TrEMBL record:
Protein name per its UniProtKB record: Palmitoyltransferase
Residue stretches making up the Palmitoyltransferase DHHC domain: 154-285
UniProt-listed PROSITE patterns: DHHC
Catalytic activity, reaction form: L-cysteinyl-[protein] + hexadecanoyl-CoA = S-hexadecanoyl-L-cysteinyl-[protein] + CoA
Length: 356
């Protein structure tokens, strides 16, 4: 009984012969393009059929390569659209807040309360813009392509370079990324060792900003919603054009900020749990599988990058002394994360991080 791999090799050889005969027949009018295609197909088929390391995974990966290519390119293209969407939506919210919400707050609230609104709102805005800009423009970090002494756990099949611990290949960026968390289309960038803090802080401050906008415009939203309900009465109340724009803008503001607050709040909470556990999104899946595997043989999995809840946060935020909670967490800061993203044989205990 012939095995599946034997049948597959046989089919590939027949396909190879058929392609060769096709080219021989068409040799009377050969073209350079056809010749290149033939050479490429022959190389592809031979590497699939006559390689000792070929298995079903390699064959399936090769067959699906055009699909992966299409998805990766679409994601890369959509990344630009998503970044534009973030900028446009945030700008539209800012225009509405500066045109309608802040003037109402300043004219109706007591002076101390209005001052607090102005200070908090602008601090939150600066933190959002700073962290989004840094998250999109900072490279997540890549392992060196040339030969070096950094420890590696495997070889990347795509880049053909050693992969240090916690490094993973991103097919959308087409490169290996240090301490890769995920590829974020909203940033059009990978989230890795050097921009993970910027990504998380952006999510956190954006959620805070949306909650703030949603809560502070709630009263105006109720009034605007009530006014729009009366549009359908006969005869309709005599609203001016400016009042109609105000009502629709406030409803748009409240619906958008409330929806983003819920969705982004959930994502921020998930990432906060991961940071607390000292793992990335990819490591969450790997560690879960490893925990189950070791449990079956009576062993317990220990995450080597978990230094304790408080220390994990200090390592992640780059807090080394008390003043850093203000200068590096509550104010915009461009400091580098701990380590080079390639060696992980250190712990914060050894660096006296717990002295705070
Ligand atoms: Zn790679
Ligand atoms: Zn990527």
């Amino acid at each position: 009984m012939p095995s599946g791999s034997w049948l597959f090799r046989r089919a590939m050889r027949l396909l190879l012969r058929w392609l060769r005969s096709c080219v021989k027949q068409g040799r009377s009018k050969p073209s350079k393009r056809l010749g290149e295609l033939w050479l490429y197909s022959r190389l592809l088929l031979r590497s699939l059929c006559f390689s000792e390391t070929t298995n079903s995974d390699v064959v399936v990966d090769s067959l699906f390569e055009p699909v992966y290519w299409l998805v990766d390119h679409l994601t890369r293209w959509f990344g630009v659209v998503f970044v534009c969407l973030v900028v446009v939506l945030t700008s539209s919210v800012l225009i509405i807040v500066y045109s309608f919400v802040l003037p109402t707050v300043v004219s109706t609230y007591p002076a101390p309360w209005a001052t607090w609104h102005l200070c908090f709102g602008h601090w939150n805005l600066v933190m959002i813009v700073f962290h989004y800009y840094k998250a999109t423009t900072t490279s997540p970090g890549h392992p060196p392509k040339e030969k070096c002494d950094t420890p590696s756990v495997s070889i990347c099949k795509k880049c053909i370079i050693p992969k240090p611990p916690r490094t993973h290949h991103c097919s959308i960026c087409n490169s290996c990324v240090l301490k890769m968390d995920h590829h974020c289309p909203w940033l059009n960038n990978c989230v890795g060792h050097f921009n993970h803090r910027y990504f998380f802080c952006f999510c956190l401050f954006m959620t805070m900003g949306c909650v703030y906008c949603s809560l502070s415009s709630r009263g105006m939203f109720v009034d605007a919603y009530g006014a729009i309900e009366t549009y359908y009465q006969t005869p309709p109340p005599p609203f001016t054009f400016k009042e109609k724009v105000l009502h629709k803008s406030i409803i748009y503001l409240w619906v958008l900020t409330s929806s983003v607050a819920v969705a982004l709040g959930g994502l921020t909470l998930w990432h906060a749990i991961l940071i607390t556990r000292g793992e990335t999104s990819i490591e969450r899946h790997i560690n879960r599988k490893e925990t189950q595997r070791l449990k079956q043989i009576g062993k317990v999995f220990r995450n080597p990058h978990h230094f304790g809840i408080f220390n994990n946060w200090k390592v992640f935020l780059g807090v080394e002394k008390r003043s850093h909670w203000l200068t590096r967490v509550l104010l915009p800061s461009g400091h580098d994360p701990y380590g080079d993203g390639m060696t992980w044989d250190w712990s914060p205990q050894r660096r006296d991080l717990v002295a705070i």
